[in-house]
Amino acid sequence: MKRIIKKVAVLGSGVMGSRIACHFAGIGVQVLLLDIVPKEAAESKDKKARNKIVNDSLQAVLKSNPSPVFNKDVIKKITTGNFDDDMKEIAGCDWILEVVVERLDIKRSVYDKVEQFRKPGTLITSNTSGIPIHILSEGRSGDFKKNFCGTHFFNPPRYLRLLEIIPTPETDAVVVDFLMHYGDLYSGKTTVLCKDTPAFIANRIGVYGIMSLFKLVDKLNLTIDEVDALTGPIIGRPKSATFRTADVVGIDTLVKVAKGVYDNCPNDEARETFVIPGWLDKMVANNWLGDKSSQGFFKKMPPSSKGEKEIYTLDLKTMEYKPRVKSKFASVEAAKPIDDLKQRLKILVAGQDKAGEFYRDFHYGLFSYISHRIPEISDEIYRVDDAMMAGFGWEIGAFESWDVLGVEKTVKAMSDAGYKVAGWVTEMLAAGNKSFYKIAGGKKLCYDPSSKTYSALPGSDSFIIMSNYQDKLVWKNASCNVYDLGDDVLGLQWSTKMNSIGGDVLAGIQCAIDKAEKNYKGLVIANEGANFSAGANVGMIFMLAIEQEYDELDLAIRMFQNTMMKARYSAVPVVTASHGLALGGGCELNLHSDKCCPAAETYIGLVELGVGLIPGGGGTKEFTLRASDEMHEDEPETITLKNRFLTIATAKVATSAFEGIDIGVFRKGHDEVVINQNRRITEAKRSVIEMFESGYTMPVQRKDIKVLGRSALGALYAGINGMWRAGYATDHDVVVAKKLAYVMCGGDLTEPTLVSEQYLLDLEREAFLSLCGERKTLERIQSVLKGGKPIRN
Fold first, then answer.
1. What is the pLDDT of residue 1?
2. Averaged over 382-395, what is the pLDDT?
């Protein structure tokens, strides 16, 4: 039967249940969130008292940071209730998702109630991470079993993209297919099909990785600070690295999963790795469980006499908290300047110091472990990599890391060091297959141990990865690559530090547009780094400004503006597919494209005011143009302009693509938010083709932009002065904000006037240049270049 998910019931409103409810509401689904009636309200008829647990839980989650919702309107889609009064409402739901406490007896009692009201054919799934899925369905009706499955979301579900799908032997295959597809397309998840084995895939491998690192602490006499320095972004892992991740997850949760694997996996060759170290047992006994108990491996100390807050680290030998110590290793310092993770890994593992020994031990143990988990936890090796990347935030998967270091070379080194690999790896190498992955025809192929052949990853047609198109390279320079993505569509991506936009990138954009205009239907602009773009290359701006090379600086700004205008006024559609950070110049590129297909997790805004500048690549012009288009006769014109002005003046950054619509960067009803980040380039390509084939014509440059001149300028200046008097703006903030106001009002005009885009671009460029000569602006830029944050001066 055809399933349409209009309403979901989430049973259990704890942190996970409430966050799952928020995620479903965020993708547009109506949600019924239920929990138990408080004991003290058992006899009460007061609905508010009976729903206290569910309402308090939901409100607590909504106040958490980072936010579990895409924007504040999401909450309107969630209705709350309790198991006693409102369970009957699940009859109107298309999917019932159980997220109650991890106790079999409690889950079974909830299922008893569900069976009373659930309509036949309705999906029923559990978010359990510790109880075997087949045990949960024991004793249930045939229809329940047929439509029952494990759906293991990772916390927080908005941000961690993994959704493990765990069927039982009695789960209908159609149900599994639906959940895999729905989780991917509508929930924005990397859906991974798992076997019903202890801890499934991600936690089995992830907790092994953490426990093995705990063993290395003792073996190599390492500190917590040293291990976290070695296992964070330097090897493509999250900033929380190892011990900080444990604090966030909860040390009791980590111990529970480790003990579960030890107890339930007697044939695991690395079973002893899951034995809990004595110091970890002491932490649990002391209730040092991490963030949930305010101390774990790390502890926030009371503010010092200077008001500074410090975080202390636990000394595992003395079990006392001590000031953090910054760690340095020669091999790590040598690898830090290398942006390419794959090249960096090779240098780290080859290191001849303690760090190198650590990396070899860690990777050899990990490679051995994952090889033996095939086919126990998965028949396909790519599922293991997908799970670790989506669930634990690894930049590349474990098998892909093995490829990077060279499978054959590493297997030999592992053998010499006493680490064994599974037989299928040896067979693969003996047959002449030297890697787990390879690229062919723009698609990524993965080795299949059962058939001993390579096959394309599922979803290859839906997930375009530009770097897979190396054999379709059309043009390149030092920073950019332009690919033929098929169907007469070009794709441009660049790779710089934080994907900043400098001269090479601007040249790449211009060249890609030229080529697209001659022989293609259009251009997609995207990239595969952690961020779309953190903005213009402020280092270059700083150097030109400090050397007072104002002619060069003027040319650089003109080139940026001209490139943005070329994107706007090209003869073919130009579509961006942003994700992660899209700040400053990255935002301006989105503002000037024909259409944007951003991932939902796009954090976008014009942030130049923070470094003492105004948007100089057309951003100020574009916000003024949009303010002009939004002015209505039935409201003061200055209101619309003021709102646009404040968005830039406060350096507002949208915390999702949906908020990007709210702040006026993306256009409601025109730009298309893509829930699954992996699909954004495909959607952008589809949009290019659609616009081209529907008769795309090049837009005409605007000369009808209404600017308000002195009347609005006075109002904005008064507002700026008020912010300064109230202490919200510094003296230099006032200088910059007045420059911004001057440009957005069209200058010192005596009356409202219609002007051209070029008129505004000239004003914008002049203001930007003048601010580059301000000492306090240069101090702010220098602060960003040194420490990543601007000073308040």
1. 66
2. 96
* DSSP structural state of residue 38: P
Q: Which two tokens stand for residue 335?
A: 């690898």
pLDDT digits (tens, 9 = 90+) for 84-107: 999 999 999 999 999 999 999 999
How far, in Å, CA of 660 to CA of 657, rounded?
5
Strand intervals (E) in 264-395? 298-300, 311-315, 320-323
Beta-bridged to residue 491, according to DSSP, are 483, 524
Smallest CA-to-CA distance from 621 within 506, 704, 744 is with 744
Residues 6+ apart with CB under 8 A from 45: none
Report the C-alpha dihedral over residues 334, 336, 341, 344, rounded to 10 degrees: 10
Question: Each residue of 570-616: pLDDT tens digit?
Answer: 999 999 999 999 999 999 999 999 999 999 999 999 999 999 999 99
pLDDT score of 761 more than 80: yes
**Tokens 């885009």 — which residue?**
757
Dihedral angle sign, alpha carbons of residues 745, 749, 752, 754: negative
- Taking CA atoms, 418 is separated from 180, 215, 365, 401, 756, in Å, by 39, 16, 10, 20, 72
In the block, tokens 């993994």 appear at: 162
Helices 731-744 & 619-630 angle (0-180, nearest 10): 60
Question: Which pLDDT score is estimated for 635?
Answer: 67
Quick check: helix, strand or coil at residue 500? coil
How far apart CA 590 and CA 574 sit, in angstroms, is 10
Pair of tokens at residue 31: 């949600």
* C-alpha separations of 579 from 448, 499, 740 in Å: 31, 12, 27
CA 609 to CA 259: how far, in whole Å?
A: 52
Amino acid occupying residue 787: G
Q: How far is the CA of 81 from the CAs of 46, 53, 102, in angstroms?
A: 12, 9, 21
Beta-carbon contacts of residue 697 (< 8 Å; ≥ 6 apart): none
Torsion on CA atoms 372, 374, 377, 379, rounded to nearest 10: 180
